[in-house]
Design brief:
By secondary structure, the chain is α+β, with helices and mostly antiparallel strands. It has one domain: 6-pyruvoyl tetrahydropterin synthase/QueD (Tetrahydropterin Synthase, Chain A). The chain has four helices and five strands; from the N terminus they run βαβαβααββ. The longest helix is centred in the middle third of the chain and has 16 residues, at 73-88. The chain is elongated. It holds the Pfam family PTPS. Involved in the biosynthesis of tetrahydrobiopterin, an essential cofactor of aromatic amino acid hydroxylases. Catalyzes the transformation of 7,8-dihydroneopterin triphosphate into 6-pyruvoyl tetrahydropterin. Its cofactor is Zn(2+).
Length: 150
């Protein structure tokens, strides 16, 4: 490979945030919600430190031959601050984040929210995946897939 050819690399950065939420679907009765979500359906909500919520954003792109970087980490830090920490950290997801007024605030949907928020800020096509660690045992990975065929 010539020195001028860009090699593909993946760059990841993590942030942590704390938030509370209630798993509750407006499409279900109170009894159905309790059966489906159990203690996570507590009317007063429950909280997480996302890694307690740890979020890892991974970018994929050719290494710039001049800078030697996929992206300047300072820029990525600022994008993640705006897309993740400002709207989510120390918030009640269901009450403080308009997106979750109509969408159940599962970790899966938190990952989609973060993906969509980062996509608006990052150069087109660079975002590879978003990982949201709800706990040490529970991790959601989202790569921008919008639908699946059932």
């Amino acid at each position: 490979m010539s020195p001028r050819s860009a090699r593909l690399a993946r760059l990841s950065r993590s942030v942590t945030f704390s938030a509370c939420h209630r798993l509750h679907s407006k499409s279900l009765s109170d009894e159905e919600n309790l059966k489906l979500f159990g203690k996570c359906n507590n009317p007063n909500g429950h909280g997480h430190n996302y890694k307690g919520r740890k979020v890892i954003s991974t970018l994929a792109r050719g290494i710039d031959p001049v800078s030697g970087m996929v992206m300047n980490l300072t820029d990525l830090k600022e994008y993640m601050q705006e897309a993740i920490l400002e709207p989510l950290d120390h918030k009640n997801l269901d009450k403080d984040v308009p997106y979750f007024s109509e969408v159940v605030s599962t970790t899966e949907n938190v990952a989609v929210f973060i993906w969509d928020s980062l996509q608006k800020l990052l150069p087109q096509g660079i975002l590879y995946k978003v990982q949201v660690h709800e706990t040490e045992q529970n991790v959601v990975v989202y790569k921008g897939e919008e639908t699946i065929v059932k």
